[in-house]
Design goal:
heterodimer; A: 309 residues; ABC transporter involved in vitamin B12 uptake, BtuC; globular; B: ABC transporter involved in vitamin B12 uptake, BtuC; two-stranded antiparallel sheet; 11 helices; 2 strands; 2% strand; transmembrane (chain B); ABC_transp_permease (chain B)
């Protein structure tokens, strides 16, 4: 029952799961994990952008600070990595409460500007708080303990991390398909009417903001464990922009589209890096511009339109 | 203390010029220009390249670079911004974000991330006795020019016919159109003018700040916070907040150096709590 509703068509669900399971066979395993983490991050951003109508341009604050929190827990406590990752996600959720509370007072483009500004604040704090974050060197040597199981091979670690990503995506999907998610969509489409119907829209917005931050944090924490370090890049504004880019490329409001966007962008960045091309902004910026100008429905959105025809 | 405040005013001059350009563009087009910081950076690099490659000095670059980039801005508006204008304003924000990435990395590819030197114009090399303390002449010049430019824009907006049209189009675009005024005709020049202001600030910044590809990106995010503090859609508020934030950051830098970078965002959070529409903003902007 649930399976048949997932993604509308069970076939697509199976294809998606198989793709997720086979990914490290086809792409370099560390890159496969990056794709999975970014896919969850993109889904979390889409939860706000596509289903609540809020463009957060500051989600790097949650992705990056969860990376630090996860790393700190793993380094200092020696607990198994799942505990550290969940701790990181919880940290993001807590951080999202004040940021969300203040940001949701504004709408539309102002919401984007304010979230961006708060993320920049988190960046400056991380940069300055060297004793804890390592400043520009980043937080290095994050272990990946799991009850003594050897997960140093990225190929195996991908399968250790995948359940977290799939669980996160499932949560995102459940949110969208729940009565709560329906209220979010009504806030997106007509917030005055949603309010008139008696929904406390600020409370809904804050809750989805916190949930989205927690899911982003889950992705960011796993990313930090996978790489063994957490860096300032994670809290920088380009990271927020990249997540939004993946959502737009995959298709706003499609939830799964972000995974396609993540796969394309991460793989592209990896190839550019391998080729020694450092100024990836030239390419990704150009792709972004083209998508915004002529391909606004994104890959998944376009495919869905074609399928439904 | 007074000297710190003066430092703040000079820093605020840049915030004010950039916030002014952003506010004018936003008012007329409803576009938040993420590439504003990139144009600031291009302004600084433009004057650097002019001096380095052709020996063109600061006094020529100061008008020339903003005009060239302003014209480039009008082309940009005609070709792209206009096309996205009828859609959700988020699309133009995303478009200009992509543009900023491209411009920044193109410059990075050409010149690297190291800062390029740019000498002070020789006429402004010394310092000026301001009565209570001596101050570098160039900084005094930057402050004076910025105040004059912001004042001039204010006069144009409030005292001239063009300004009236722009303000009317900002406040009530449909009504202005219904009164027989061709609003669309003014959109392109206003966008170009806003870009030129950013480039102007960049040229002014070249002799006193590090000229590097990243100089605009971080600054523009702070300027976003300034605009939110000053008031959404308020030109006056943006400029006033620019100078005020400059002073507060300079004092913060003096008394609590560890807070200097975050202070402006704390200020923004306080304003959001107390007056979500900003100090001079209108509630309807919410």
């Amino acid at each position: 029952m649930i399976l048949s509703r997932l993604a509308g068509r069970p076939v697509l669900l199976v294809i998606g799961l198989v793709a997720a399971l086979l990914l490290p066979w086809f792409v370099y395993p560390p890159v496969a994990l990056d794709i999975a983490c970014w896919a969850l991050f993109a889904a979390a951003v889409d939860l706000l952008l596509g289903f609540t109508g809020l463009l957060s341009f500051g989600h790097a604050a949650f992705w990056g600070s969860a990376a630090y929190a996860t790393g700190l827990i793993a380094v200092h406590s020696g607990l198994p990595f799942p505990v550290a990752v969940l701790g990181g996600a919880a940290f993001s959720a807590v951080l999202a409460v004040p940021i969300g509370y203040l940001s949701i007072r504004l709408r539309g483009i102002y919401f984007a500007m304010v979230t961006l500004a708060f993320a920049q604040m988190v960046y400056f704090v991380a940069n300055q708080w060297r004793d804890v974050t390592g400043g520009e060197n980043g937080l290095q040597g994050i272990p990946r303990d799991f009850f003594g199981v050897d997960l140093s091979d990225p190929f195996f670690f991908y399968y250790a991390g995948l359940p977290f990503i799939l669980a996160g995506l499932f949560v995102a999907w459940r949110i969208v398909r729940s009565p709560f998610g329906r209220v979010l969509v009504s806030i997106r489409d007509n917030s005055a009417r949603a309010r008139a119907l008696g929904y406390s829209i600020d409370r809904y917005k804050l809750l989805v903001f916190v949930l989205s931050a927690a899911l982003s944090g889950l992705g960011g924490g796993l990313f930090a464990i996978g790489h063994g370090f957490a860096s300032l890049d994670g809290v920088y504004w380009t990271t927020s922009g990249q997540a939004v880019m993946m959502v737009v490329l995959g298709g706003i409001g499609t939830l799964w589209g972000g995974a396609i966007g993540a796969a394309l962008i991460v793989e592209l960045n990896d190839r550019l890096a391998t080729a020694g091309f450092q100024e990836t902004g030239i390419i990704t910026g150009a792709i972004f511009i083209v998508v915004v100008l002529v391909f606004r429905r994104g890959v998944w959105g376009t495919a869905r339109t074609l399928l439904e025809r | 203390m007074l000297q710190q405040a003066f430092n703040g005013l000079v820093g605020g001059a840049f915030y004010a010029l950039l916030a002014l350009g952003l506010a004018v563009i936003f008012g007329m087009l409803g576009v938040v220009n993420f590439a504003h910081g990139a144009f600031y950076m291009l302004g600084a690099f433009g004057s650097y390249v002019l001096l380095d490659s052709w020996g063109v000095n600061f006094w020529v670059a100061l008008p020339l670079v903003p005009v060239v980039l302003g014209v480039a801005g009008t082309v940009l508006e005609r070709l792209f911004i206009r096309r996205l204008a009828p859609l959700d304003p988020l699309y133009n924000f995303l478009f200009t974000f992509g543009l900023a990435l491209i411009l920044q990395d193109l410059v990075k590819r050409e010149y690297g991330v190291q800062s390029q030197p740019y000498p002070r114009p020789s006429a402004l090399g010394g310092s000026i006795d301001l009565g209570l303390f001596d101050y570098p002449a160039y900084q005094v010049f930057v402050l004076a020019v910025s105040v004059v430019v912001c004042g001039a824009v204010w006069v144009v907006l409030t005292r001239t016919r063009v300004g009236m049209i722009v303000r009317a189009a900002t406040e009530r675009p449909e009504l202005t159109r219904a009164l027989g005024i061709d609003v669309a005709r003014w959109v392109t020049p206003v966008f170009g003018f806003g870009v030129a202001l950013a480039a102007f600030a960049g040229v002014l910044a070249a002799p006193m700040r590090a000229v590097n590809p990243l100089m605009g990106a971080d600054l523009i995010i702070t300027v976003f916070a300034v605009v939110v503090i000053g008031g959404l859609g308020s030109v006056f508020g943006s400029v006033a907040a620019g100078f005020a934030v400059g002073i507060v950051s300079a004092l913060g830098n003096y008394y609590a150096p560890s807070l200097s970078q975050t202070l402006v965002f704390i200020l923004m959070a306080a304003v959001l709590l107390w007056r979500p529409a900003g100090l001079f903003g209108r509630e309807e902007a919410l």
